[in-house]
């Protein structure tokens, strides 16, 4: 088996977890990250701290490249140098926020859509047989989930138990005729292109449409990183702005570790042009109100929140991922973290960093 894995966004939440995991399996990891998260979200968002930690922990198995994924020639040179040694590609670099995308639509599209075809084409030219994993998003379904017949409970919205998607929304939901946000639309372009490289060029590509991805590796910023930012606000006694839906919107949360074990399963038995909804599902989900309650219990501190009676455009009122298709293809894979376990770990990992 080829022993090199190329990981974009390697200093970010998902990328860094992937670096540790695959280096731990004995693969050499080539990371691509230019700390553009710092440009998107300011100092809170910079992933430089995570990169430094990573380099120290992983040592010689990790090589970092400060390449911008918009730099087509730079990526091609990198892949040309590695050639068929590349046995796996994980493309997790992105502009990840709805709100930010509307500020600079060209930048968002260049990073998310054009950056993805740059990665696909470099892989096709130099390492066509390497499984190519792309971190897409449930925002490709736009605001269609908001047309579900939700009922209001005391701390959350919920689907009736007899609804076909009570256990989670599956991949048959339409991606058409809905409001995606500029970010959602650039991710759709990338998502379809990854599928197309699978079908058209017969490459082992997979699209993982994530719900809320989280873990202690997140550089928690107001515009991105839900559970990490909830915990940061409680620990630092910052005020968290809740946008709309009475704080009862539901998110499923998957720990970066559980996502990466799913990637490993795909790497070991790749398929062509797959799409998977991927998240914490029924096992791991919460509303904002519930997340703050758990964070307060863990820290012993009161949460400071401010309610803004205007939801973010295109934001989901309720999302729980249906992971049935993935579980059917990879029955050995299991979720191991639920929301309280995720929040506790974020708390413990950041005790020296986030102080009031
Ligand atoms: N975190 C979530 O809740 C979530 C949910 C669904 C999908 N996703 C997707 O998962 C992927 C990873 O998300 P994450 O939470 O790890 O994000 P992240 O922001 O923590 O990491 C992304 C990394 O990519 C880097 N990057 C951005 N633009 C770059 C560029 N032009 N060139 C090189 N590097 C660049 C950033 O500096 C950052 O370190 C993204 O594609 C995101 O859209 C995330």
Automatic annotation (TrEMBL):
Source taxon at top rank: Bacteria
User: Which Gene3D superfamilies does the record match to this protein?
Assistant: NAD(P)-binding Rossmann-like Domain
Q: Which residues form the NAD-dependent epimerase/dehydratase domain?
A: 5-279
Entry's family note: Belongs to the NAD(P)-dependent epimerase/dehydratase family.
Name assigned to this protein = CDP-paratose 2-epimerase
């Amino acid at each position: 088996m080829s022993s090199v894995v190329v990981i974009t966004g390697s200093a970010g939440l998902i990328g860094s977890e992937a670096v540790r995991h695959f280096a731990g399996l004995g693969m050499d990891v080539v990371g691509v990250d230019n700390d553009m998260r710092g440009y998107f979200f300011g100092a809170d968002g910079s992933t430089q701290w995570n990169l430094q930690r990573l380099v120290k922990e992983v040592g010689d198995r990790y090589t970092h490249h400060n390449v911008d994924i918009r730099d087509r020639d730079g990526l091609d040179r990198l892949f040309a140098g590695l050639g068929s040694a590349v046995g796996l590609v994980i493309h997790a670099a992105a502009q990840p926020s709805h709100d930010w995308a509307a500020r600079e639509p060209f930048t968002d599209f260049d990073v998310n859509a054009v950056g993805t075809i740059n990665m696909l084409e470099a892989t096709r030219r130099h390492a066509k047989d390497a499984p190519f994993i792309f971190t897409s998003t449930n925002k490709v379904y736009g605001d269609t989930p908001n047309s579900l017949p939700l009922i209001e409970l005391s701390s959350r919205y919920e689907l009736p138990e007899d609804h076909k998607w009570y256990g989670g929304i599956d991949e048959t939901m339409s991606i058409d005729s809905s409001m995606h946000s500029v970010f959602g639309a650039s991710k759709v372009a990338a998502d379809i292109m990854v599928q197309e490289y699978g079908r058209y060029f017969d490459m082992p590509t997979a699209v993982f449409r994530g719900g809320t991805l989280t873990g202690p590796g997140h550089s928690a910023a107001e515009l991105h990183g839900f559970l990490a930012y909830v915990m940061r606000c409680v620990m630092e006694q910052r005020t968290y702005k809740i946008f709309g839906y009475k704080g009862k919107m539901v998110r499923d949360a998957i720990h970066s570790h559980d996502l990466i074990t799913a990637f490993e399963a795909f790497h070991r038995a790749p398929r062509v042009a797959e799409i998977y909804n991927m998240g914490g599902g029924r096992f791991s989900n919460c509303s904002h109100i519930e997340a703050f309650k758990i964070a307060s219990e863990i820290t012993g501190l009161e949460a400071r929140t401010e309610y803004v009676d205007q939801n973010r455009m295109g934001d989901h009122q309720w999302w729980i991922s249906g992971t049935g298709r993935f579980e059917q293809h990879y029955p050995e894979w299991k979720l191991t973290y639920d929301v309280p376990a995720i929040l506790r770990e974020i708390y413990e990992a950041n005790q020296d960093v986030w102080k009031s």
